[in-house]
Amino acid sequence: MNTIVETDGLGRDFKVRDGVRRRTVVAVERLSLRIEPGEAVGYIGANGAGKSTTIKMLTGILVPTRGTVTTCGLRPVADRRRLAREVGVVFGQRTQLWWDLPVRDSLRLLASIHSLGPAAERTRTDELVDRLELGEFLGTPVRQLSLGQRMRAEVAAALLHSPRLVILDEPTIGLDVLSKQRLREFLVAERRTHGTTLLLTTHDMGDVERLCDRILLVDRGSLVYDGTLAGLSRTVGAERVLVVDLATPTPDLVDVPDTRHLGSEGDGLRQRLAFDPDATTAARVLAALAGRTEIVDLAIEEPDVEEIVRRVYASRR
Amino acid sequence: MPRRDSNETRYVPVIVRTYLRLFVAGFRRQSTYRLAALGGLVANTTFGLLKVALLFAAVRTSGGELAGYDVAMMSTYIWISQGMLGSVNLHGRTEIADRIRSGDVAVDFLRPLDVHLASVTTEVGRAVFALIPRGVPSVVIGALLVGMALPDDPWAYPLGAVSLLLGIVVSATTVYLVGVCGFWLLETRGVAILYMVVSGFLAGLFVPIAMFPDWLRVVATVTPFPSMMMYPVDVLSGRVDGAAAVGLVALQVLWLAVTVTAGQLATRAGRRRLEVQGG
Question: What phi and psi values does residue B241 have, to the nearest 5 degrees?
Answer without folding.
Answer: -140, 180
